[in-house]
Amino acid sequence: MSNLRSKFLEVYSVLKSELLNDPAFEFTDVSRQWIERMLDYNVPGGKLNRGLSVVDSLKLLKEGRDLTEDEIFQSCALGWCIEWLQAYFLVLDDIMDGSHTRRGQPCWFRLPKIGMIAVNDGIILRNHIPRILKKHFRVKPYYVDLLDLFNEVEFQTAHGQMIDLITTHEGEKDLSKYSLGIHRRIVQYKTAYYSFYLPVACALLMAGENIESHADVKNILIEMGTYFQVQDDYLDCFGEPELIGKVGTDIQDFKCSWMVVKALELSNEEQKKLLHENYGKDDQACIAKVKELYNILDLQGVFADYESSSYDKLTKSIETHSSKAVQAVLKSFLAKIYKRQK
């Protein structure tokens, strides 16, 4: 795995160098340094799970055959396109949310002399993706499918972000707008498509598959993405900041989190009143009251039950798939996230 990771990072350096010397723009030393610093700060800093998943998935789809050097490079390049997409979303997301930290360091826009230039940096990150695809995949029979795939997933993610923002920020803070249905829609569109479906769809295209005929795979991956986000919501409240790389702020940010949706579902009238009065306030006493209620309602136990039933349901769905190679891809995804701590 460490060998794959170092190979993956080598490909990042190649792609970065190509982008910094893209003939479509006349770079100066200053602009080239800006882009390089911006890329190094925002693109390779995460766990790289989404990107590495493309390579892992392609290997499993090839059922034991070693990948050629070209296949390794190209699957890494597609993996990096997903990491670039993620960086673009996160840079802009942090500005919209007014966040302070990301991956254990200050958000890009919080750095001195960056500020709102970060908006344009986000746009540049987005524009790097078709440059990478054009350079390395233009001659492939699945090139148009790749472009369509990235465009469609970006469209879905941006609309998921919109539902999140208008539910969370529009007008008065009204907890009664929050439900499991709304939570599910936000999660499906904002996270599941690009984090779970996109890496596998990239690998399927590289393996010569028609992704339109894999609707069942898409559905399982969207379910997995939903489960992943519920874990995220749980870790935001009960995870260790040192492990997850950030201090959770869902309560004070009035997020439509699985935690609050579940709490509303399980609360009596008095407890609902407490939630309405304290949720979404950036005040340590209010946050403590919400967390105390979460403990009274035993949300840790409720989450443990949810986690185990989700795992069983997903495993059953995966095992009905006709292809053992596709089963292996889906099982490897599930194994990576089951009972994760960060």
TrEMBL record:
GO annotation, biological process: cholesterol biosynthetic process; farnesyl diphosphate biosynthetic process
Cellular compartments annotated: Nucleus
GO CC term, one of those recorded: nucleus
Reaction(s) catalysed (UniProt annotation): isopentenyl diphosphate + (2E)-geranyl diphosphate = (2E,6E)-farnesyl diphosphate + diphosphate; isopentenyl diphosphate + dimethylallyl diphosphate = (2E)-geranyl diphosphate + diphosphate
Record EC number: 2.5.1.1, 2.5.1.10
Keywords: Cholesterol biosynthesis, Cholesterol metabolism, Isoprene biosynthesis, Lipid biosynthesis, Lipid metabolism, Magnesium, Metal-binding, Nucleus, Steroid biosynthesis, Steroid metabolism, Sterol biosynthesis, Sterol metabolism, Transferase
The protein's annotated pathway: Sesquiterpene biosynthesis; Isoprenoid biosynthesis; farnesyl diphosphate biosynthesis; farnesyl diphosphate from geranyl diphosphate and isopentenyl diphosphate: step 1/1; Isoprenoid biosynthesis; geranyl diphosphate biosynthesis; geranyl diphosphate from dimethylallyl diphosphate and isopentenyl diphosphate: step 1/1
Entries under CDD domains matching the protein: Trans_IPPS_HT (cd00685)
Name assigned to this protein: Farnesyl diphosphate synthase
Swiss-Prot/TrEMBL cofactor(s): Mg(2+)
PROSITE patterns tied to this protein: POLYPRENYL_SYNTHASE_1, POLYPRENYL_SYNTHASE_2
Family matches, as Pfam families: polyprenyl_synt
MF terms in GO: (2E,6E)-farnesyl diphosphate synthase activity; dimethylallyltranstransferase activity; metal ion binding
Family membership noted in the UniProt record: Belongs to the FPP/GGPP synthase family.
Biological role: Catalyzes the sequential condensation of isopentenyl pyrophosphate with the allylic pyrophosphates, dimethylallyl pyrophosphate, and then with the resultant geranylpyrophosphate to the ultimate product farnesyl pyrophosphate.
